[in-house]
Amino acid sequence: MDLILEGIKQAISLLFTLDPEVLGITWLSLAVSGAATGISLIFGMSVGTTVALTEFPGKRFVISLINTGMGLPPVVVGLFVSIFLWRNGPLGFMEILYTPTAIVLAQAIIATPIVMGITLAAIQHLPRNLRLQILALGATRLQMVWMLMKEAKLPLLAAVMAGFGGVISEVGASIMVGGNIKGYTRVLTTATVMETGKGNFDIAIALGIILLLLAFAINSLLTAIQQQQRPR
């Protein structure tokens, strides 16, 4: 109990003294996870909506793959991204291994199936006749898709929260592709693991609390937006 209290004191101290290293780590965590979430929204919502609205052979198999991807182990993603970005790998010429860009790439791969799966379920859950009614009113297919996404905006905002939550708390892939380099690729999760391994539990608890506060602040903002859009 004393250790936890000491961690809380450390967290308060690090926050209110505006420790430069902690601020840098916190900002990098937010920037990397925010970028990865943004990429996952572009690909995840596009593919999820397309699969939901299109009939084709093997659709159930594709949906099964998407649902499986929602539970993709981060360490597996980290392994394959590392192999591809290694100097002798297919993408080694890019020279981005052990950089924030590599972390964004790995986290985007983790978040995309999550966003894709929730988007797919949200669009499929809409009444089937709704799209026909929209098209009957003279809307183009693109306008129809946009109106369907507006109708499903509550679960789609949940997809944003789920995608962000999946990457801001991720550690395995970030260590493997980022290297946990001080002042360059060290984020809150990897820093917490490092301090725990060194036996600095008070600092690890402090970093963990800061991570929880950051996740809570972002999700509170998204929840406020979501609940404002909720039908009365």
Q: Tally the helices: what do you get?
A: 11
Instruction: Give the class from helix and strand content and strand pairing.
Output: mainly alpha
Distance between the termini: 45 Å
- Flag low-confidence runs: none
Percent strand equals: under 5%
Helix content class: over 70%
Largest sheet: none
What name does the CATH topology carry? MetI-like fold
Q: What's the count of strands?
A: 0
Task: Give an overview of the whole structure.
The structure is a single chain. This protein has 232 residues and is mainly α. It is 77% helix and 0% strand. The chain has a single domain (2-228), classed as MetI-like (MetI-like fold, Orthogonal Bundle). The protein has helices at residues 2-16, 20-53, 59-69, 74-85, 100-125, 128-136, 141-151, 153-168, 172-178, 188-197, 201-228.
In short:
The chain is 77% helix and 0% strand. With 232 residues, it is mainly α. The chain has a single domain, classed as MetI-like (MetI-like fold, Orthogonal Bundle).
Secondary structure elements and their pairing?
Elements: H1 2-16, H2 20-53, H3 59-69, H4 74-85, H5 100-125, H6 128-136, H7 141-151, H8 153-168, H9 172-178, H10 188-197, H11 201-228
Helix pairs in contact: 1-11, 2-5, 2-8, 3-5, 4-5, 4-9, 5-8, 5-9, 6-7, 8-11, 10-11
